[in-house]
Amino acid sequence: MSATPNPQRRSEKSRQAILAASIDLCSEKGYGGVTMEAIAARAGVSKKTIYRWWPSKGAVLLEAVGQKVDSEAPFPDTGDLAGDLYTQMNRVVRLLTTPPFGPAYIGILSELHHDAELTRAVHDQFITPRFTAAVNRLKSAQRQGRLAADADLEMTVELLYGPLYYRYALRKPPHSPERTVKLVDHVLRSLDCRP
Questions:
Q1: Contact indicator for 49, 41 with CB cutoff of 8 Å
Q2: Is residue 22 classed exposed, middle or buried when 0-12, 13-18 and 19+ CB atoms within 10 A define those classes?
Q3: Residue 98 and residue 78: Cα distance in Å, rounded?
Q4: pLDDT per residue over 90-111, tens digit each?
Q5: Range 91-95 contact pairs with CB under 8 angstroms and sequence separation of 24 or more
Q6: Is pTM, for the whole model, over 0.85?
Q7: Which domain holds residue 21?
Q8: Domain end marker among 38, 56, 74
Q9: Domains contained in the chain, number
Q10: Closest Cα to residue 21, out of 10, 7, 37?
Q11: Fewer CB within 10 Å: C terminus or N terminus of the chain?
């Protein structure tokens, strides 16, 4: 007698196929050329299946980008604050400026002014968890006496990552690794960071 198929495993296989299809299509056609119909056809599922899990193509691509960032750009904590910031920031720049994930994310950002639900999802699923991870890394440095006790950690994250997003959003060349080193050094010096 054959075993009954596990619906959870089948659902996860479909979910991963949908995420992969969305990224592949974005790479081939650009963000504007991706449709829910095309994702469904490429993934071998119905549109109804996609809409059961995501309300829009932006939401599908957001999950695909977030999954990639989580796997390739976690926030390190080696005890060397500046080194950890260089490492993590350079990974993020590399990921978000390299196809297919860079074009997918810039497409998602372009829809934020028109899609309140996607805006909430970007903040809840993508920005807030990564912002929190950065603040927690700075708190660790603060507890070790490497950052001033009165440093505004949330503002520090904005000072560090704001220039990266500025260049990204305006389609300017990304910071080089050397420029990121200067950015991190400048921000940490302004915060009375101790070696």
A1: no
A2: buried
A3: 26
A4: 988 888 788 888 889 889 988 9
A5: 92/164, 93/164, 93/174, 93/175, 93/180, 95/68, 95/69
A6: no
A7: 7-56
A8: 56
A9: 2
A10: 37
A11: N
